[in-house]
Amino acid sequence: MSILRLAHRWAGGLIGLSLAILGLSGAMLVHKDDWLRLTTPHAAEAQMQDTATLAAAVQRIFEDPDPPRSIVLASKRLGLHRLSYIDKERGAYADQTGEIVAQWSSKWERPEIWLFDLHHYLLVGDTGKFVAGALGLAGLAFVITGVILWWPTRRLFTFSLWPAKMSRAAVVRQHRDLGVLVAPLLFISLLTGVAMTLPKVEEVMLAPFSSPAEMKASEGAPKAKGGPLAPDTDWLELLNATRAQYPGAEIRTIGLPTKPGALISVRLRQQAEWLPNGRTMFWFDPATAQQVATRNAQTLPTGLRIANLEYPIHAAKVGGLPYRLVMTVSGLALALLGSLAVYTFWANPKFQKRKRPSTPHARA
Predict the structure, then answer these.
(1) β-strand partners of 283
(2) Would you give the distance in Å from CA 322 to the centre of its chain?
(3) CB within 8 Å of 120: residues ≥ 6 apart
(4) DSSP string of 172-220?
(5) Which of 9, 198, 202, 353 is a Cys-bridge partner for 133, taking CB atoms 3.0 to 4.6 Å apart?
(6) Residue 271 burial by CB count (10 A; 0-12/13-18/19+): exposed, middle or buried?
(7) How high is the pLDDT of residue 345?
(8) What is the DSSP string of 263-294?
(9) Nearest one of 79, 38, 35, 86 to 57, comparing CA atoms
(10) Cβ contacts of residue 202 below 8 Å, gap of 6+?
């Protein structure tokens, strides 16, 4: 137990601040849509899903001389379409008529963009994504070892959001008791985060449900090749074709081909899907707007359907405000536990030593 305690303490001192950054940024991102509703024109407008309105907006957006490569359509919580361009740094928001209301050429121009990049990529791309996943694995180890270390002291449990005083003993006591209280939330947050950032770990987790080969065969675009994009695509007819097959589904994203032979893609979210943009897919030939293939998310292998739950659980895209508040608590708790672990380990070296006796009698 002493070795486990020493390893837990040293590892916390070394990477606690990194985990705190992930926790705090995650807690803020949970409320991204609320921030946009307060700060961006038309963001609070009600979602419009009739195909005539969608088609008119899509046509207006794609007719621009510099069209985006894809559109994420307005949702129930955010009344704006988000536009993404070939240059991944660029982006824009458009209202539901297709008029641009905000645009940026760098992630640093939009707080919600760089905050997501910090949380998911640590601002350094795919390398940062791998590091974030490794930190999540370490966080899971902290949760498990922390519960083991707490168990012998369980009768001393007291609830405290903040240490009674900034002594090592008080901070350790608060860290131990708060940690075990939020352990289930941290476990869910960290496990789903690891699954999304470390594909090989996710494969191992999902292997009991579906083989990696089965899941890979069910993903990706069809092998069919499309022609060049026609300048007069009938977006209303195209969207009506998707709506006819899934009348109760939301049309969520539209993507243009980004290379020769690629297809137009449309994503829908059926009512049973938790993923905000769904995984029900349509592909169309860019030259003729004829349907080439479709994929029903409800018939995907079990492993993929479980994988599609990771993001909505991690980012609180289900459960409404109560669950967003739960995930906010999880993120803030991780930030507090990580930062105080670093504080006691590095900023106050005197906490690592026993205080020497000062009275003559004690010295004797």
Answers:
(1) 265, 293
(2) 18
(3) 128, 129, 132, 197
(4) HHHHHHHHHHHHHHHHHHHHHHHHHH-HHHHHHHHTTTS-HHHHHHHSS
(5) 198
(6) exposed
(7) 82
(8) -EEEEEE-TT--STT-SEEEEE-TTT--EEEE
(9) 79
(10) 194, 195, 196, 307, 310
Handedness of CA 183, 184, 187, 188 (dihedral sign): negative
Total-model pTM = 0.90
Residues whose CB is less than 8 angstroms from the CB of residue 123 and which lie 6 or more positions away in sequence, other chains included: 114, 117
Q: In what order do the strands lie in the sheet with 280-284?
A: 100-104, 91-94, 81-84, 70-72, 250-255, 264-269, 280-284, 291-295
Q: Encode pLDDT of 157-167 as tens digits.
A: 888 888 888 88
Sorting pLDDT into bands at 50, 70 and 90, what band is 288? very high
| Region class of 169: left (phi > 0), else alpha (psi between -120 and 50), else beta | alpha
φ/ψ of 100, rounded to 5, equals -70, 130
Structure token digits, residue 129:
């994504």
Contacts of residues 70-76 at CB distance under 8 Å and 24 or more positions apart, as own/partner, are: 70/253, 70/254, 70/255, 70/256, 71/253, 71/254, 71/255, 72/252, 72/253, 72/277, 73/250, 73/251, 73/252, 73/253, 73/254, 74/45, 74/47, 74/48, 75/33, 75/47, 75/250, 75/252, 75/276, 76/47
Distance between CA atoms of 245 and 295, rounded to whole angstroms? Answer: 11
